[in-house]
Amino acid sequence: MSCTLGKLPLAESRRSCYSGISPAWGFFTETSPAPPPRGVPSAACQMWILGISAYYHDSAACLVRDGEIVAAAQEERFSRKKHDHRFPSHAVQSCLRHAGIGPRDLDLVVFYDKPLQKFERLLETYIDYAPAGFRSYLQAMPLWLREKLWMREHIAEQCGFQGKVLFTEHHESHAASAFFPSPFDSAAVLTIDGVGEWATSSYGWGRGNQIHLLAEMRFPHSLGLLYSAFTYYTGFKVNSGEYKVMGLAPYGQPRYTGKILDELVEVREDGSLRLNMRYFRYCQGLTMTNRAFDRLFEGPPRKPESPLTQREMDLARSVQDVTEMVMMRMARHVHQLTGEANLCLAGGVALNCVGNGRILREGPFERVWIQPAAGDAGGALGAALSVWYQYLGNERSAARVSGIHSDGMRGSFLGPEYSNQEIGEFLETTGARYQLADHRSLPDRVAALLAQEKVVGWFQGRMEFGPRALGGRSILGDARSVRMQSVMNLKIKFRESFRPFAPSVMRERVADYFEMDCDSPYMLLVAPVRQGLRLTMTAQQQELFGIDRLNVPRSVVPAITHVDYSARVQTVRREENPLYYDLLRAFERLTGCPVLVNTSFNVRGEPIVCTPENAYLCFMRTEMDYLVLGDYLLDKREQGEFVDSKAWQEEFQLD
Ligand SMILES: [Fe+2]
Questions:
Q1: Would you state the pLDDT for residue 324?
Q2: HEC letters along 380-436
């Protein structure tokens, strides 16, 4: 295999870069030669399936009972190591604990990709580029030889599970996470990612309990890796800083779009693409781009943490434009091919909510559903559902999947929860001063604090699964406040961000504030703030650069309005999160505004809080004004002196 591809002749360039997938699919690799009988298990017995994703980034576990998602969590929340890629032992334990079962009760465990195929890809790539990739080869091998190639044994050892272990392909897991929990009986399915085994993107359809993938794009040609290359080049961390590139794009001009399309990537009408590997180093090195890339964009990569310039903003805007163009073409192609009215999306690129918003607004699909844990964490969930529906052949109907919710994700509140009693016991041990609020009056009390521009840590119910805080582990503020953005950034999150915060809004009021009128429960759609609510900037203000521009109020809800008047919207329905909805409602009654700032409950560099202890420590370490832990209300002014551990200060506060 050769990864080095330049420009193709014209006739060739009209051809698609997708490869067909054999109808036989080869969906699962079994570790036991005897396949289990297909069909529904007897109604009397419950079947527990544990899905696991690990060893790339965002390791996670998901527990499914008879096709219903019971629990799911990411390892980082327990280990407190952001994007933790290690085996998700804590997450597995948490899922089992929530269900009240042990490893012996599990019927099947499924891993979200096929390590042997991935290993084959690594070896072929190393051989192709030898000796150039020797250093990265040496660095990768120990983990492969020690753990990744012995997955079945490793799972048995880590989980105490002795039964059958199955493996799905990476993109089959993403596709399953997109379709099976969706509210659709029938839909087109599109996955867009960095890379799995070989596939980097795939599409097909889902109907009932079946997903059929029709074609895939293969490594090294990848929209996700192209975006990550620019993430690296603009000085952010690959696999976590992609959000920052998206947030930076509105400050820039698409100055490099032509160069990207002329030199770096060839995009076909169907959205498939080929990268010119002369400019990339991820096949053989420890970095994403090389010197030829530097020459093309006239300079070396930005050093992490160094000041951002107009150049990075223009690069971000350019790669974002190309990404949206590819996403739109892919969506149109998949629509044309499947004729479906609905689209399901997953894979890391499906977290690009600006691109998602365009697909929704510009069509061609009537409805779009995106897996909230669209990255690799969601692979654990997809793998488990794949086994239940595709492998075991159990029936599926969208009405049954959705139940009282709008889909099968339970609002993505799938992590651990803590009772008032547990919270109370914890607070007693810390010596914290608190008031125990009446549950019914809690929304009114907290709304009054928010209306006084207080910043409130909000810890309620089960923890969210996926990268966004949705009202379970959130920090909240008044979206109307002109000072809220800088207060939350500097005093709470310890950062000076060029990104605005995201809004939560009552579902029935979303169209009053934003140019959209549909559900966006997982904060995965970006929409413009309504024209009539925008504030015009003076000529002088328009000259401002970077964060100074963001700090100019741009609408009646300035804390959540980006420089291009966009916002990353979360809609909230009462049936999905009653307490959080009641808080929005109480705030609206008090102020007339149904919008709150909702940012994740963590400081810079730290995973979102999981336990009451994590939340309390974050509250004490920052200048947050109030903390609500279940029914307990803590006022910062009433707390005693707090002496933090030196290790934490060194790791986070001084970052
Ligand atoms: Fe992935």
A1: 96
A2: HHHHHHHHHHHHCCCCCCHHHHHCCCCCCCHHHECCCCCCHHHHHHHHHHHCCCCEE
Cα of 513 to ligand 1 centre, how many Å?
34
Give the integer Cα–Cα distance in Å for 228 and 348: 10
Q: What is the pLDDT of residues 514-561, one digit of tens each?
A: 999 989 999 988 999 999 999 888 888 777 777 777 778 889 999 999
Tokens of 427: 């607070």
How confident is the model at residue 133, as a pLDDT?
62
Length of the chain: 655
Q: What are phi and psi of 170, to 5 degrees?
A: -50, -50
The backbone torsions φ and ψ at residue 93, rounded to the nearest 5 degrees and listed phi first, read -60, -40
**What's the pLDDT tens digit per position in 83-127?**
998 999 999 999 999 999 999 999 999 999 887 777 777 777 777
CA-nearest of 58, 100, 109 to 79 is 58
The Cα–Cα gap between 80 and 78 comes to 5
More confident residue, 192 or 131: 192
Dist. CA 490 → ligand 1 center (Å): 33
Q: How far is the CA of 368 from the centre of ligand 1 (A)?
A: 20
CA atoms of 398 and 295, how far apart (whole Å): 52
How close is the Cα of 407 to the center of ligand 1, in Å?
22
Q: Answer left, alpha or beta for residue 66, where phi above 0 means left and psi between -120 and 50 means alpha.
A: left
- Using 50, 70 and 90 to split pLDDT, how confident is the model at 2? very low
How far is the centre of ligand 1, averaged over its atoms, from the C-alpha of 351 (Å)? 11
Å from CA of 150 to ligand 1 middle: 21
345 with 355: CB under 8 angstroms?
no
pLDDT in tens, 224-248: 999 999 999 999 988 888 988 998 9
What's the rounded Cα separation, in Å, for the pair 80 and 74?
10
Q: How far is the CA of 451 from the centre of ligand 1 (A)?
A: 41
Q: How far apart are CA 453 and CA 487, in angstroms?
A: 10
Cα–Cα distance for residue pair 620/622, rounded to 1 Å = 6
CA of 200 to the centre of ligand 1 (A): 8
Using the mean position of ligand 1's atoms as its centre, give its distance from the Cα of residue 227 in Å.
Answer: 14
The residue among 55 and 599 whose pLDDT is bigger is 599
**How many A from CA of 237 to the centre of ligand 1?**
17
Instruction: Quote the CA–CA distance of 292 and 191 in Å, as a whole number.
Output: 30
What pTM, to 2 d.p., does this model score? 0.88
- CA of 191 from ligand 1 middle (Å) equals 9
Tell me, in angstroms, the distance from the centre of ligand 1 to residue 199's CA: 9
* pLDDT(36) > 70: no
- Enumerate the β-bridge partners of residue 111: 52, 167
Find the 468 Cα to ligand 1 centroid distance in Å. 17
**Which structure tokens are listed for 324?**
């949206």
Rounded distance from Cα 164 to ligand 1 centre (Å): 24
If you measure from the C-alpha of residue 374 to the centroid of ligand 1, how many angstroms do you get, rounded to a whole number? 8
Residues 31, 108 contacting (CB under 8 angstroms): no
Burial class (CB in 10 A: 0-12, 13-18, 19+), 647: exposed
